[in-house]
Amino acid sequence: MADNERIPTVIADEAHIVYKIHQAGSVSSSPLASFKRLTTRAKNANIREVHAVKGVSFVAYKGEAIGLIGTNGSGKSTLLRAVAGLLPVSSGAIYAAGQPSLLGVNAALMNELPGDRNVELGCLAMGMSPAEVQAKRDAIIEFSGINDKGDFSSLPMRTYSSGMSARLRFSIAAAKKHDVLLIDEALATGDAKFRKRSEARVRELRQEAGTVFLVSHSEQSIRDTCERCIWLEAGVIRADGPTGEVMKEYEAFSRR
Ligand SMILES: Nc1ncnc2c1ncn2[C@@H]1O[C@H](COP(=O)(O)OP(=O)(O)OP(=O)(O)O)[C@@H](O)[C@H]1O
């Protein structure tokens, strides 16, 4: 497809993301010290900054699945959270079509409620009608496989293993069509059988026209799911292109 026929879904333009960490309990965090800082415009010595993403630019298009790779702490999850609108950019901009959905291992479900209630609540929260929720509920539970070893869907989620909850979260989010679906390591959490099933679902979601971003340390997941790959290192894009080529560069870097 020619570039001018492709529809952009996410545009990052020189995006910078800085975490500000307040180190509490010090004298200079008193109201008087804060007032002095305001009047003198001095920086608070007790606020540490972590510049996690440094001037990242890219355009993602409809129908693409993009893998985000890089060593620990390189800024992958931070970038994903900013695309989802959960973190502000400190300069530059990130534009996204529709409401991107972040499907992470931390997606909020209620631990005290059983899995099937969480499926209902999760679907309602994603904007499905009650009738749609009823129609999809059993299929979502079936897809998650949480009942493979007994009737777990009627038990509180606190009784689930971390893999089981991650699978249920993935299944809920994957039940809806997304303009932009952001997946953070979710595929790596399930077992091999579930991973295959979820990869197939990611492929379907792509065909349903959305854009998928996948953060994973599993080379296989990225290779099987994404045709494009962005390699982030120390908050900077080191490579952006076809998965095979970017992976090769990344592997050479990792071997050093
Ligand atoms: N909530 C936070 N507050 C302050 N700093 C943070 C926070 N979350 C992440 N960071 C810092 O931002 C940088 C990027 O972290 P991030 O989690 O985005 O990396 P990552 O590439 O996803 O890492 P990993 O592969 O280990 O999951 C790191 O230096 C990290 O310490």
Automatic annotation (TrEMBL):
GO terms for molecular function: ABC-type transporter activity; ATP binding; ATP hydrolysis activity. Pfam families: ABC_tran (PF00005). Residues 36-256 form the ABC transporter domain. One of its GO terms (cellular component) is membrane. Keywords: ATP-binding, Nucleotide-binding, Transport. PANTHER family: TEICHOIC ACIDS EXPORT ATP-BINDING PROTEIN TAGH. Belongs to the ABC transporter superfamily. This is Teichoic acid transport system ATP-binding protein. It comes from Actinoplanes philippinensis. The lineage of its organism: Bacteria, Bacillati, Actinomycetota, Actinomycetes, Micromonosporales.
